[in-house]
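Re: that chain you flagged

S.,

Sorry for the slow reply, it's been a week of failed gels. I finally had a moment to sit down with the sequence you sent. For the record, here it is as I used it:
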Amino acid sequence: MRLHPLAADGLIAAALTTVAVLLGTEAVAQGWPALDPLAWTLVALLTIPLVLRTRAPVTVCLAVHACWTVYVTLDYWPVVGSFGPMLAVYTVASLRPTRTAAACAALLAAVWIYAGLRSDSGAMASVAGQAVGFPLVLWRFGYVARRTGELTLRLRAEQADRARREVAEERVRIARELHDVVAHHIAVINVQAGLARFVFHSDARTARDALDTIEGASGEALAELRRMLGLLRADGVQGADGAPAPGLDQLDEMVTRVRTGGVGVELRVTGTPRPLPPGVQLCVYRVVQEALTNVLKHAPGADAAVELAYRAGEVAVSVTDGGPSEGLDPVTPAERGGHGLIGMRERAKLYGGTIVVGPRSEGGFGVRLTLPTPVQAARRGDTVRE
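Prediction finished late last night. Pasting the structure tokens below so you have them in one place:
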């Protein structure tokens, strides 16, 4: 149960008042004068102001020390009134800068020594030791409490800032995934729709095949969107339909789909295929998907080649095209890259790989991605040529 700070301070003040009253009844047994009404009033003034100790720590500290000085000057037992000033010094040390806390600790030490001188004690060495030791301990405890509070507030602020950054990064990731899914399939649908319209009256079979491709591409786009939204609804544990993320075993399907869009795509696999982590497979799949989508959109009529190479400690994939057919305006690399280029670069960086994107010397455009395997390999940065 959490108490209001004022209520908590009130309970502490009541507890200290009770202890002071119980201790005050032992004054005669300790060789000190019995406490009269004036003494009890001063005892109350030494503890009751502690209710406001966290709201005005310095003022409360000065007030209780003033009352304690009067109490000692009237030759009452000093120990009875010592609890309030000590708690006040601790409070100042826990809430105020070091200089202020040091001044209040020195005030406590001075009144403590003054009390020893008033009592004509033969153990002044012990009194001096207490006058130095108690304020130092209280200051140290208060300082630790203040630093702990500051670090706690800083930690909470950093956690809130980290949470905001993670939300922003997650939104970027989702936006990139949606871009990859939608852009590729919409590009295929757009090309096939144009083809179907062009041959609608002259070649019914080709038009029908184009419509079948449109149906398949739109269905796959919807399926991937449902899978992604299902992942978000399930807190990223499993998709709504349990469908796995795209992998290298689906490259053939992607190439076939793009090929039906009018782009001659050749897929070559070199090396010995081996199991790869799902994240690496998804990274390769998305980069190839984005590169072929750019060929569809920006290099109509071009032939493309996809080469997947399994090597020792890494996997590499390249997507190259020969440029648009004659008579069509080529698209500049900057126009062809767009946000897709940023997404490819971020994916490569995420898995510690390198990516090179840019025009080829023999004409056309190329994308080359190299990822270390396993994923735990040291990151090697990224290289992007535009």
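What I noticed first: The chain is about 60% helix and 10% strand.

Talk soon,
D.
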